[in-house]
Amino acid sequence: MAEADPGVFKDLASVPEIAVADAAALDARLRAADAPFVVRGLVKDWPLVEAGRRSSRDARAYLLRHHRDTAFTVAIGEAGGDGRLFYDAAMAMNFRTLRAKLPDIFERIDAIEGKAGAPPVYLASIDMHQFFTGLYEANHVDLGDRTCLASIWIGTRTRIAAHNDLPNNLACVAAGRRRFTLFPREQFRNLHLGPIDNTPAGRAISMVDFHAPDAQLHPRFPDALAHAQVAELEAGDALYIPAMWWHHVEGLADFNVLVNYWWRETPRWMGSPQDALNHALLAIRDLPADQKQHWRDLFDYYVFNNGDDVTAHIPEEGRSVLAPLTPESADRIRAFLLRNLSQ
């Protein structure tokens, strides 16, 4: 663990570690996994990792040799805030978002690196193909036939509140150190989530400060910790996070770089479950109780149980969107929703 760790982390179970001999072995492990695992040294031979081992300035110089001459989005947090990117007292973000060229951002990091209380500087989820040339090709994991979004995360010491993501995630530390604290999907009630629309990055986050939990405000958090796992990763290590698992992420070094790969096991043309939840808040949540119960039953019938009794009495050629989805029927549903939502 890092120096002066808060006590919340000290007794947590560790994420299991595995070894893989090659891309085929990693592929097999990923396909079989239903829980997180760590692979030590998976990307230790990346040029970016080797540059970061020499120094953080070498890592930045390496990235600058590959960056495109375009504006990057960067978050600048509050000085003296322990790197936590979160809400302020009025539930606005406690950081400001700017657009700047990467050399200018790195010049700022050069000036504050290692200084106590310096404001955190954070570039989140930067598309490697869009913002860099040759970086992905020189530093990537062979994930077989998966269609992945490859992103890079760059910053000083930061704390990112527990959240989850719809896709599966392979997170690879390329420079610095990261600590991940992970929770199974069902622990969302015990993480005391914030709003789903006003969020730092599009996903609801835990309102708990993991460095100073408030027992009165967040009384169920100890129940979440009972199911938590923690992994501290050095440069070259990788962590697999299954879809929808909650993860609290900390950059523990003065300069940190992470590369991650997101992919879904479902076809790209399927809709986002989050959109369905948002629409349900609009259309169902505030109905009278008896009507809400009826809609719960309908969702069970058509969506969650989806048994043969739903369509057995309908001729096969007439089942329309009740039949297994195809790209064409998904497009019909999407067009139908757009027409109705625009009225």
From TrEMBL:
Residues 115-278 form the JmjC domain. Pfam families: Cupin_8. It comes from the Bacteria. SUPFAM superfamilies: Clavaminate synthase-like. PROSITE patterns: JMJC. This is Cupin-like domain-containing protein.
